Amino acid sequence: MSVSQTLEVQCPRCEQAQDITAWQSVHTTQDPELKEQLLDRTLHQLTCSSCGEVTAFTLPMVVHDPSHPSMIWLSPDGTFPVSHAETLMENLPDEIIHRYAFRTVGSHNELIEKIRCFDDGLDDRVMELVKLLLLQQMMQQSPDLSVHARLYYSDTDTKQDVSKLHFVLVNPETETSKVAVLPRHVYDGVLSDFRAHLVPQPEWPTIDLAYAANLFQTFHQSKQSEKPS
Fold first, then answer.
1. Region of residue 207 (phi > 0: left; psi between -120 and 50: alpha; otherwise: beta)
2. What mean pLDDT do residues 16-32 have?
3. pLDDT of amino acid 201
4. CA proximity to 110, closest of 65, 82, 75, 137
5. So where are the chain's domains?
6. Could you report the per-residue pLDDT of 170-203, keeping only the tens digit for each?
């Protein structure tokens, strides 16, 4: 079930202290409206009663989706509550726990991206490989592209064209964004090439571009070892 607590926060503009409902756990099938608020970024949004400033807070939470078996832990400060995670896993029947994807993310954008990947039946490990390829291509075409730019998968279950994958490139330095599109067959090709290398990860791993870079290195090393000496 979804679990919340009341948390006192300060308005970043006027520093007025006020309460917010902080959701520690969201069960997406039992409380689909909470999932929608999470995706549209209003779940932990506060309108200051003093100055009217609207602020979205990124708070630690876990999103549990049995329909796309996954638990995603959002940890903005990089800490991981081992005891809480173990309790969540203990409550899952043994016969289904092997089907679950357990993930840790550090930002709201990453959390939303994981949810959309799983909603669309995509493997987030393959998606990180695809994003790495796309970023490399974009940097070759635009050498002035910031190394701090981040790419996020942005499709949802309401997308019109299933033959294409849509991404949003966010540049934190200029606070601008743009849409990038790839044919779906690129994802399918990467999945085919790397399927044998998608080995199980330690519990609650962080699957990101660093993971993809390491996987690429392992893949190329295996290809080199297969060449006749």
1. beta
2. 95
3. 82
4. 75
5. 60-226
6. 988 777 888 999 999 999 999 999 999 998 888 8
Q: pTM of this prediction?
A: 0.91
pLDDT of residue 210: 95
Nearest partner of 108 among 23, 15, 166, judged by Cα: 23
Give the closest residue to 121 by CA, choosing from 168, 167, 187. 187
For tokens 């690129």, name the residue.
186
Torsional class of 74: left (φ above 0), alpha (ψ -120 to 50), beta (otherwise): beta
* Per-residue model confidence as pLDDT tens digits over 83-135: 777 788 888 888 888 899 999 999 999 999 999 999 999 999 999 999 999 99
Residue type (1 letter), 45: Q
Antiparallel, parallel or unpaired: β 54-56 and 101-105: unpaired
Token pair recorded at residue 128: 């990180």
Q: Mean pLDDT lowest for which of 68-77, 128-137, 159-168?
A: 159-168
Rounded Cα–Cα distance for residues 72 and 100 (Å) = 10
